[in-house]
Design goal:
By secondary structure, the protein is α/β, with parallel strands linked by helices. Helices cover 33% and strands 21% of the residues. It has helices at residues 3-20, 24-36, 65-76, 126-138, 187-203, 221-236, 267-280, 314-323, 341-344, 377-390; strands spanning 56-60, 83-88, 96-99, 102-105, 107-108, 119-122, 142-145, 180-183, 205-214, 254-255, 286-293, 299-308, 327-329, 350-357, 366-374.
């Protein structure tokens, strides 16, 4: 075999492992977190796991990549529930899934699916969310929606729990509000704002330029499978299978596959612009993004350039990010060690490195960051479950 084929085979094995295998480091981090975490003074301690007085929960879109991740995250975080309902299209109805030591039969998603349901986690696509989300909310269910269907609706909170939990302050089980929809931001927005918001709170961000390097997982389980199949095709010298994307994905990269808009930016790029302003609650920030699809399995990377309203040194920025919840630093210049998608795969935190002054700007008013985060986890399922935890 050639050196290229050996390297590609190793890359495929690593990608498959990041996608399928439990991460021992993640398990260790969770054990440590559980053993050292203490409730704050006056905090309400929530009993976790299956319990008779827990909320009734439904997952809509259980057969997709994010739906599967919902199950993993709910178990990892010991989310309390009394009943669990697994919902999908008619094509998946009747299949079985394992969750928390029990076997569940997938039910077809219908208008009656949310009778008596307290919390529904949606990741079934925008059209499904638009049809069934309001129906569920009208029945008193709190819907956490992972699609773009409601993100820019002024009456729907768009929430990253570490960033703007106050946006859903009156959304509580047992509260005055009976049901409603909370939107999960776009994965690229979540990953960027986990890193940038602590800086924004400290000195204010005047302008943000983001270049994203987005994994297959952002396009779903079938895209992940196609990347793996194409890698085999290329290594075997076979015709390349192209069913999900119009471009070869393996050993290639291309502009994000979202539709283009009239201003020359694609919809993915404009989501980052619009969602950031909504989450931060301001129009006084200039944002531009370039989103690229790269042959990585499940974690996004982003290069972020900031123009700041006030001066901030590299050391001060590093100190701020070290204290930020949900953020971990990998910033070792001496050993050229910085975040990679494999570092972030299957991990809860967003990883930040390459923290440095932007030398194209005067003084300490510019900052450069490189950020990696698991698109399926913090970019989707984990964020949604954290939002659901705020409902309790």
């Amino acid at each position: 075999p050639t050196m290229q084929s050996l390297m590609a085979s190793n890359a495929l094995a690593g990608a498959r492992g990041a996608y399928a295998a439990p991460n021992s480091r993640a398990k260790l981090n969770r054990r440590v977190a559980m053993s050292t975490r203490r409730p704050a003074a006056g905090a309400v301690t929530v009993r976790a796991g299956k319990t008779p007085d827990g909320p009734k929960v439904a997952i809509a879109g259980i057969s997709g990549a994010v739906g599967t991740e919902f199950m993993r995250v709910l178990v990892e975080r010991d989310f309390p529930y009394s009943e669990m309902k697994m919902l999908a299209s008619a094509r998946s109805a009747g299949k079985e899934v394992e969750f928390d030591g029990e076997t569940y039969v997938i039910e077809e998603l219908t208008e009656d699916s949310f009778d008596g349901v307290d919390i529904a986690l949606f990741s079934a696509g925008g059209s499904i969310s638009k049809k069934f989300g309001p129906l569920a909310a009208a029945k008193g269910c709190f819907v956490v929606d992972n699609s773009s269907a409601f993100r820019m609706d002024p009456d729907v909170p768009l929430v990253i729990p570490e960033v703007n939990p106050e946006a859903m302050a009156d959304y509580k089980l047992g509260g005055a509000r009976k049901g409603g929809i909370i939107a999960n931001p776009n994965c690229s927005t979540i990953i960027a704002l986990m890193a940038v918001t602590p800086i924004h709170r400290a000195v204010g961000v005047k302008r943000m330029i983001a270049s994203t390097y987005q994994a297959a997982s952002g396009a779903g389980a079938l895209a992940m499978a196609e990347l793996e199949q194409q890698t085999r095709d290329v290594l075997n010298g076979d015709p390349v299978t192209m069913e999900i994307f119009s471009w070869q994905y393996a050993f290639n990269l291309f502009s994000h596959n979202a539709p283009m808009t009239e201003n020359g930016y694609n919809e993915e790029e404009m989501k980052m612009v619009k969602e950031t302003r909504k989450i931060w609650g301001t129009e006084d920030v200039q944002i531009a993004a370039t989103c690229i699809r790269v042959p990585v399995m499940r974690a996004h990377a982003e290069s972020i350039n900031l123009e700041l309203n006030g001066e901030l040194s590299e050391e001060e920025a590093r100190a701020i990010l070290e204290k930020a919840p949900g953020v971990s630093l990998i910033d070792d210049r001496a050993n050229n060690k910085f975040p990679t998608p494999l570092d972030a795969s299957d991990m809860d935190d967003v990883y930040v490195g390459r923290i440095r002054r932007d030398i194209s700007q005067e003084g300490n008013n510019g900052l450069e960051l490189f950020v990696c985060g698991d698109q399926i986890k913090k970019g989707a399922a984990l964020n949604a479950v954290q939002v659901a935890e705020l409902l309790l």
